[in-house]
Automatic annotation (TrEMBL):
Keywords: ATP-binding, Nucleotide-binding, Transport. Residues 5-234 form the ABC transporter domain. This is ABC transporter ATP-binding protein. Belongs to the ABC transporter superfamily. It comes from Roseicella frigidaeris.
Amino acid sequence: MAALIEIERLTKRFGGFTAVDDVSFTVDRGEVLGFLGPNGAGKSTTMRMLAGFMPPSAGTARICGADVVAQPVAAKRHLGFLPEGAPTYPEMTVEGFLGFTGRIRGFRGGALRDRVAQAMRLTQLEGVRLQPIETLSKGFKRRVGLAQALLHDPPVLVLDEPTDGLDPNQKHEVRELIRRMAPEKAIVISTHILEEVAAVCSRAIIIARGRVVVDAPPSVLEREGQSLEEVFRSLTLGEAAPRREAA
Ligand SMILES: Nc1ncnc2c1ncn2[C@@H]1O[C@H](COP(=O)(O)OP(=O)(O)OP(=O)(O)O)[C@@H](O)[C@H]1O
């Protein structure tokens, strides 16, 4: 069976600048792919193209077999996307916004109420359900974004820095949630936190200047005698980082 996420030769140019350059990878059910790279490497641009929010200049992305450009509705049905930043509609309450999202996803009546309640429970938002989103702290806003991505229980999750702005307890909760969901889904997360990759990801891709420079399980990278941080630095700074002494 085809992988749930298939990216082939994806490229994005902004004028004469190539932000994402010929990127290809697949993600199977059960995999959590950590998408790493320095600021400006092209992670968010790749994720936006994968989520159908930005048209590629070349190449294709498919979610559960549906091309995100040619079959956008079919692709989005199978996708939960957490973009960078906070959810829109800041004047809506948490519950109102999730209800709105659920109706767009086609849920009504009891099914809609159950979905909203379940999404709030998973992201621990019940205590602020009647609060307007604009009055929430950064971490709570982030969790509202995560709740809307999970609401329809999609097989594919694309999460752009899901733990950004969360306190250590919430970071832990969100990582646990990702781990629990992992067997049933294909998940891509971008992060700047290298320990997060070791903690939740079965595979890591490092991207630098728009190109994939590593695609391997974090354990394999570390087994070669280098910490993930050393691998990251040596590949993205363009010079060798000092090797760790073998144990
Ligand atoms: N709409 C746009 N127009 C022009 N350039 C853009 C646009 N969006 C992104 N870029 C550029 O593309 C490059 C990749 O940006 P992107 O946001 O994908 O990086 P990133 O890896 O997600 O970075 P960060 O870790 O800082 O979030 C950057 O140089 C950025 O300035």
